[in-house]
Design brief:
Number of strands: 17
Helix content: 25-40%
Structural class: alpha+beta
Largest sheet: 10 strands, mixed
Shape: elongated
Strand content: 25-35%
CATH class of the largest domain: Mainly Beta
Radius of gyration: 24 Å
Order of helices and strands: EEEHEEEEHEEEEEHHHHHEEEHEHEHH
Number of domains: 2
CATH topology of the largest domain: PUA domain-like
């Protein structure tokens, strides 16, 4: 991975997944994005998630989107396997209209996506960065275009409602496509500042999108067959509290988690249907059975699946015995789903992948990410959802 020192930012190209170092000072003058994009008198600001060069009246030259990664209620995410990037707008607290933000980020999103939907393609290039977790350092995630190849105008920019301190407000959830571009040269940045998007140094993927509307996503299929324990569990405190809340809720009646696990699977796979949770005893090694619909609405094909749910303490992994039980009960043309609040141990995980068993693993981290994608991003939100959707009887000791 390429690292660029703070003193070299003024001459650096933008290299995919490279880290750009911040300065040693404590002020915003030590953040790296502003000097990285400065050419002559042109550039972007040194703070905020939205950093636009240019103006609405004269047109934006480019827009930098910076994700800090610490906003659990607003989980900006990059799916490296599909190239889709989810970014939340800048109206993140009650008290103002959707577009009345200080930096105007939501107005930029509204106008850019409206242009794309109309076919005008009047959009500046978007440059995506995320904080590395080390001081002010940032990582370049790529050059992005608004929207995506399989997204409709009802899907790529959506105004969602949130509630904070009993006050309701809206914010945007925007979807971008990271284009197949490994390096963005400083020469192209200079052309952009001069108002020339499709100049000599314009990346091919951006030129193609502007001219034809065709996306060329940067897709990077994962080579990881077996995820580690750390990769299967959330790496932030709020995520860990969410898992603990789920485990605590079902601790007196663990079999009730089966209904929750089925709901989580449906959140991830909206075409999963006809799910029936089996009896707590004599379930044949399958906690739930269902069907997965494939194909166009007029000609659906339904594939059966079996689901196993394990509500374990997050640090207590699922072992060989539990997985073998599920695999042995899978019928012909049926796939399996294991949903657990913990993780799958390395041995059973490796056996599943090496032997080609059609079993999907939904671990603790996956559960947290699925819930966050459905606007259940905090422990309090999840506890309310659990109490409302999956009430359980209080423990005898709790009622005394």
């Amino acid at each position: 991975m390429v690292d660029c020192a703070f003193e070299d930012l003024g001459s650096a190209d933008l290299v995919l997944d490279a880290t750009y170092r911040g300065g040693s000072g404590s002020s915003f003058a030590s953040e790296p994005i502003s000097p990285l994009f400065k050419i002559g008198e042109r550039g972007v600001g040194n703070r905020g998630g939205f950093r636009a060069a240019g103006t609405k009246r004269d047109g934006y030259d480019l827009v930098v989107l910076h994700s800090t990664g610490d906003q659990v209620d607003w989980p900006d995410t990059l799916d490296r396997q599909t190239g889709l990037f989810t970014y939340f707008g800048d109206n993140r607290s009650p008290g103002q209209e959707l577009h009345a933000t200080t930096r105007g980020g939501n107005r930029i999103l509204r106008d850019v996506f409206a242009s794309v939907h109309s076919g005008e393609m009047d959009s500046p290039p978007f440059f995506l960065f995320e904080s590395s977790g080390n001081s002010r350092d940032v990582v370049f995630l790529g050059l992005a275009a608004p929207g995506g190849p399989a997204l409709s105008s009802d899907e790529d920019l959506v105004a969602i409602w949130r509630t904070t301190e009993e006050k309701r407000f809206q914010n945007y959830r925007a979807l971008f496509t990271v284009l197949d571009t490994g390096t963005v040269s400083r020469e192209w940045l200079a052309e952009l500042y001069a108002g020339v998007q499709l100049g000599e140094h314009c990346p091919d993927a951006w030129r193609r999108w502007k001219n034809t509307g065709v996306y060329t996503p940067l897709t990077a299929p994962s080579t990881t067959k077996v995820r580690t324990k750390a990769q299967q569990l959330p790496d932030d405190e709020e995520g860990r509290r969410i898992l603990e809340a789920i485990h605590d809720h079902f601790s007196s009646q663990p079999t009730r988690f089966e209904h929750c696990a089925a709901a989580i699977w449906q959140m991830l796979e909206s075409n999963a249907s006809e799910i029936e949770v089996t009896r707590p005893t004599g379930d044949g090694g399958r906690d739930a059975l269902g069907k997965h619909s494939l194909g166009p609405p007029a000609d659906r094909v339904k594939v059966d699946f079996a689901l196993e749910a394990k509500c374990y303490v997050p640090d207590a992994g699922v072992g060989v015995k539990e997985v073998s039980r599920l695999i042995s009960r899978l019928l012909h043309r049926q796939y399996g789903v294991l949903v657990t609040t913990s993780y799958l141990g390395p041995q059973p995980y490796k056996e599943i992948r090496d032997d080609g068993h059609p079993v999907v693993i939904v671990s603790g981290r996956d559960i947290v990410e699925i819930l966050r994608a459905k606007d259940l991003g905090s422990e309090d939100d999840v506890r309310h959802w659990l109490t409302t959707r999956f009430p359980v009887e209080a423990k005898a000791s709790d009622s005394q």
